[in-house]
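Quick start: what a row looks like.
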Amino acid sequence: MNNAPKVKIGIVAVSRDCFPESLSVNRRKALIDAYTAKYDAADIYECPICIVESEIHMVQALEDIKAAGCNALVVYLGNFGPEISETLLAKHFEGPKMFIAAAEESQNDLVQGRGDAYCGMLNASYNLQLRNIRAYIPEYPVGDAEDCADMIHDFVPIARAVIGLSDLKIISFGPRPLNFLACNAPIKQLYNLGVEIEENSELDLFEAFNKHEGDPRIPEVVADMENDLGCGNKKPEILAKLAQYELTLKDWIRDHKGYRKYVAIAGKCWPAFQTQFGFVPCYVNGRLTAQGIPVSCEVDIYGCLSEFIGTLVSDDVVTLLDINNSVPKDMYKESIEGKFDYKHTDTFMGFHCGNTASCKLSFHEMKYQMIMARSLPIEVTNGTLEGDLVPGNITFYRLQSTADNILRAYIAEGEVLPVATKSFGGIGVFAIKEMGRFYRHVLIEKGYPHHGAVMFGHYGKALYEVLKLIGVQTSEIGYNQPADVRYPSENPF
């Protein structure tokens, strides 16, 4: 299924009527040319109907970009701009919006060619605050055509995430497992974000699974799994059941997404899942996540919400891991110290039973779930995909409604090191600068659960802007402070 929006940005230029309209006309043309020369022209739509100077122009432009199918807006100040009309345009446009301003092009044209958009951006931002409008404004929102084209390109993944959240339904199965209060967060904030949630019993899921027994599509899915697993197909006897489960989830999505366009799943996986279904769902969770349908473990609703956001921001496969165990000192000394610029306390292992997609593992094998098999027959714990994560840059993050019903988030950029984990499950040796302090003064102190979502690359800048746009207060967005910046609660001695 298509589980991500395609962003189409309407670019509307504005002009204050006491400035030459030609400034905005010519600068808009240069901006469009610069964007299409470097990026995908399908991302943007140039509103040709008018340069907005009045409220009437605002209505005309709004109708035009709606008719063109635009789901995001860029208000481009080619000169000072009409603060009322331009912010009314943002108010009445239903979707993410961005404001940028033109820089002066040349010292040889600072009389009739001076636009004063630098000044106009201040008035625009003040008017946005007066009208309680959330708009994306880049760190330095003034530039020439090439600069502004780059800013718009940076806006694409931000807009994609905001649009996706506005049409998302999270489907969950069952309550959180016993002794798993950490993932039992208030859902009120989902509705505040515009996200719908459908909560089901795992008994409903079990009934649907049984109805898929003998589904004629199962052999085709099994063949696809065999191709995906390759030489890692160590449990061929379980693939038919896993395929039956995958089809169950996909059909449930088809039948239950209702009027929403996008879906993510918070799934049950223990304690009774294994004995009743006869397998663990880890591999299927990873397969669907790789297909753009994030599935979290242990009915972690905000975990799957975080995965969905990460999928849209990165336009790539994500995973959900436990911030799990420390790196042994002897492993640090042998494989990390002197080879990578990290202290021992900067490192940890991110782990889950086997839900990471095969494309994000350096090697992979289908195995049984070792932890569960300590108290259950091995044959009912088959279905995990084990292997070390691919080394490279990562962004570890989570959006969470904490116990006090406040929307909070954390973001930390780092990397998976090319160090053998010598362990089990889907696992990697992670390194994040000042992780020890971040762990204590953000993760522990702010009440985050052990699950964190992972994007495979550095996407903190875009994710931070997404969080602001959806209403997370900047004071509630935690990140790993540099060594010379103290956390408010950190002991100064």
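That is the whole record. The domain at 9-166 is CATH 3.40.50.10940 (Rossmann fold). The chain has 16 helices and 18 strands.
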